[in-house]
Amino acid sequence: MTDIKKGPVSGSKPVAHVTIADRRQFLIGSAGLLGAATLGLGTGLGVRRARAQSRAEISFASAAFFGKETFGDLIKAFNESQDRVLVKNIELPRPSSSTEVYQGLVQQLARRTGTPDVFSQDVIWIAGFTAAGWALPLDEYFPADKRSAYFSGTLNACTYDGKLTALPWFMDSGMFYYRTDVLEKHGGKVPENWADMATIAAAAQKAGDIDFGYLWQGKQAEVLVCDAVEIITSNNGAILAPDGKSSLINQKAAVDAIQFLHGTIATSKISPQDVLSWDEEPSRQPFTSGKAMFMRNWSYVYPIAQDAKASQVVDKIGVAPLPSFPGGKSSACLGGYQLGVNANSKQREAAIELLTWLSSTETQHRIALNFGLAPTRPALFQDEKIKTEQPFMASLEKVFTGATARPITPEYAKVTLALQSGISKALVSGNVQAEMDALATQIDQIVG
What stretch or stretches form a coiled coil here (predicted)? Predict the structure, then answer.
């Protein structure tokens, strides 16, 4: 990909050369939006305001998230907030149909026509879109010293090959649910390491207080990779080497972590054999029906657990960071959608203006309140209105601080299938080292 200061990427039409100072001035002067100041692109550069000759027309594509409003309403608000940029909203399927969302974006971006100009994307697509030359590097628009307002884990997931190619928007991550009433009976302290969790869970199970000590997701699916990322990272292990060119899945830290998951079924028996066929919902249902003590799952579970029509554990659950191994630290697999700019956009400056607005403190605040989607800016978790209207979300800052991205590689689609198959075989057979050795060889062939 050609550096954007020197010219457009392959396949795009030439654009007028604009210096970094000009681009920053566009954001500060022409945009004048709340998000620009928040991102550190403040006033005081001593240059004149840039004015657009006519309203630039761009498009925004995203999976369809709904709450008290829609993303269409959000784009309408942007259009009405200024008279320089007019955005057409392209609504893709719901995030539950992520394959269709992904395919829809790929089909449009691969045409290299510049549509959509701005798009939202699952964190696991960022590296692939960048490697394909579809995502515009954003470093000169948002310099490194201006990114401290975001969670570091989200920034890492938005970075590929040393370049920022996406801007944080909203996030989710794995978290540790527990029964407050059962835990009180068995010590009262939330376990911070996996061994303590297993001990407490086994005791509660033996006492007949619950049927299952610990529920997680072992189905051969993407969520199994998420569970694996969390437990491996919490043992100071990793799936890929830092350069993304080789596998570490068969190293001791990773093997011991997967062995622990197998042990929850085969040794301590705090997890039922059925977890090997469960994804999120099958594991959620026994927990909210009052049959389990601990569970790993996503944030969506909390409002269900607090709904008396769907839950037997209303006001009896707590949420904390996932446990870790001795010497490790809690890790939560990062989810959520982040923002990108089409490298072939014919209206780059207008696209950056929209991007800045969407990721601003004010817009993230609106999304948190109206969609229930967690912001990627830590400061917003201290916001009094969010604390009042979304108290559960406001309590998650510690969980999100430990957010870890899944393997960052343009070959992620192949890597995740290999991981799902290899880890599943290890959990079923119990031959963890042998299966991880075979899996490492397979992944090395993919990424090497």
Answer: none
